[in-house]
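Appendix B.2, paired examples.
Example (i):
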Amino acid sequence: MGEALHTAAAAAHAWLQSLDTRHVNAEHDVDQVAAVLRQPFPEQGARASDVVRELVAAATPGLVATPSGRYFGWVRGGVLDSALAADWLTSAWDQNASLLAGSPAGAAVERVAAEWILDALGLPGSASVGFVTGGQMANFTCLAAARHAVLARAGWDVERDGLLGAPALGVFVGAERHVTVDLALRYLGLGQARSTVVDADDQGRLDLAALERALEADELAHPGRPRIVVLQAGNVHSGAFDPGAAVALAHRFGAWVHVDGAFGLWAATSPRHRHLTAGLEHADSWGTDAHKTLNVPYDSGLALVADADALHAAMGERAAYLIQDDRPDPLATVPEFSRRARGFTVWAALRELGRTGLSGMVAGFADHAARFARELDALPDVSIVNDVVYTQVCVAFADDAETRAVAAALMAEGTTWMTPSTWHGRTVLRVSVSNARTDDDDVARAVEAVTRVLGQVRGGR
């Protein structure tokens, strides 16, 4: 075992050391990597260290350098050193974090990390925090708590009796909500097509007057029925935030308010950006992803629910073979029974950064995004099509065809990684800044790459 771990550590160190100089894109595609690995299922096993070497040799050419400071695809954060080390320990310690009795250390670290998160984000200290897999399951878990609470107020026990025959539930979502909201509603049996879609402005922010009209119309048609309103902290294209005033408005109609803040919720930690989340702290639940902004390894979503009892009722269960007491077990905050101890990495990242470091890191992401916007907007026939208020930049070139060509050429060239998308009917190159490794030199190299590739695309016409 020792030799295998040393082999893996050496390979990990070599990978991390290569990030400053290697291309961000993968050398081999999925078929090439599979071809190297493919063989009949071996009759005999192999030494653990040899298995690690074989895996490294086959996988390395197919790795995308997502931890690189020049990776700006989708919204994918990097990994802080302490969080990476804690992740290795998490696997080595092999704790099942479902029960207090099953891993006192795993449960205790999650408890303290939860307290720090709520403090950093300015959320109620009495809220309950579930350590889930990612932003998708954070939304699912929070909306499960919402479903429980609003139906319980209407006299319906959804955990016992299901949805068949339950009071009709009204769900209100913004026109530019993230797709994970629709998926969570689908998983919860609420049907994404049954949601009332509220208009958004040109930056993707939910329109407050439109929400009020929708709620008034719903109250007229279905007086007093259970309702859920879903808001967004950080539009995936523009980075825009739904207005905090929507929380009080929704509460007037008895709605549970959930905030999908996968990456944007962390703006609350930066004094310069805290105004973006003002009012959202009064919501009933919040979903976020510690990987995207806190820079911990994957498998680290956070479901934060102000009404702890609602979360425990929606997620928790008891069984004779479990060792349980009156205190809620971690399994009462997440959809899983068995799971890894996700709190170790989150605690480590928060301990490494502290309040000042976390604030500076988040503000730094926004500063890098603002620099991208300034320097790319200065290129001929290039425009920034969103108001850059946080970490997202949408770039459009002379026309959609040129934008697609630049995006494809950039991803093939490998100096940087920026992903194409379509926003408001226009093809854009989307730049998402969320990696603590990114520095001024990385931004400069990325801008140079865009400039160079743009020249090549235009020169080839």
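Example (ii):
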Amino acid sequence: MILLFLFFIFIFNVQTFLHFNNNTYIEQLPSDYFYSFTKSKSIPEPYLISINDELMNNLSLSMIDRQEMAELLSGNKLLSGSRPVAMVYAGHQFGYFTSQLGDGRALLLGQLNQWAFHAKGTGPTQYSRGGDGRAVLRSSIREYLASEAMFHLGIETTRALSLVGSVLSPVYRETIETAAIVVRIAPIVAFIRMGTFELFSTRLQYQQVRQLADFVINNMYDKPLSSKNRYNLLLIDITHRTANLVAYWQAFGFTHGVLNTDNMNVIGSTVDYGPFGFVETKLQGYIPNHSDDEGRYAFDRQPSIAAWNLAKLRLAFDSLIESTYPINEQYEFWLYFNRTYDNLMRKKLGLTFYLQSDKWLYEEILRLLDLYHIDYTRFWRQLADDIIPNEIQNEHWYYVYKQRLALEGSYANKIRREQMNRINPKYILRNYMAQIAIEKAQKGDFNEIDRLFHLLRHPYDEQPDMNDYAKASPEWAKKIIISCSS
């Protein structure tokens, strides 16, 4: 009798862990064009490396047996209510158009209300193009940590719910690595890419372009857009969201690494973490991706690349645009980007009101940081305490800055310091930190993953026992190479 009772408790817990109550993507769009129903390929002996307890609480999910969760979150077992699909799209990759891409190693598992669950590394799909459909532990750890770090920095992003590994599933990349699976959580439109629109427009499938646009409108807004020029308004809004996102990347020093049109979504959030990196002592020409030989996706080129990608999206929208309402997406992008970026940089300086000359001030600071190889994140954090690197103490910017603060009556002001420390993080995910976590994980020690996960949830707090993580990267970190292969 007791065993029967425990059995029912177990079954109840499995069911209450996660039950998908909808999947708007397959409910509102036909499989003939937009996706393919796909089963995940089982992975041998999966184990739960880490779970995002904060996100679990936000989604009102219940913790169950770790091994059972590993089976469910790896795709070995079908989650309740799940009808997995691989989504199709196209994209401009490094400037060249690829007519069909798609989820070659990922599955849209289902939705819990508006939240879509997207698993990465679940095996081959119809869009794998000969690939094995797996993700490696190395890149999965980086995405798991980075997406949470970005969320708590206040930058729009997908979030990772779980990280599952399997030592018995070899993955062949530059070397033989072990497999891992990350489940990503975001509104469903976060997985609609600029390249999704390109797929149908280049095939002259204008009905599908319209269906996709209607889907985005129906699932991205609480209130309906104007019926007269709704597609114009949609394109403008996507442009503004993209401008806002890239402005935050630039202000916080984040470099995506592979800004193809299939890696930028329509909701304006960070998606598809690959060879990313935060700038440290090099700003101009910083390239985290060793495959980017020409520096197309360098840190300082991200705004221009985003504008280029939006131009491709504008072409994909041609069949939808009302000619009586002309759109200049380039003007809209640069207007919103410059406005947002300027506002963020003035906040980083601790300034409260606008002066046109402020742009010279922060641009001069960026020039000097790059010239003298001064750590970007540490400089801004220490500026609140008036700690200035010796190399630039006697430069003209410092005199101008002190005069500017005096003009606001806020020099050495406690409130100003607190405000600056709310936008200038003490902790970011430096490449060496992720590398140490990866190397330990490859030996079966996952403690560093959880340690970093909790550290990066409080990037603006002092956390005295974590001060070592706020130091500049060690010299050996310069040899770390990040690749697209994952």
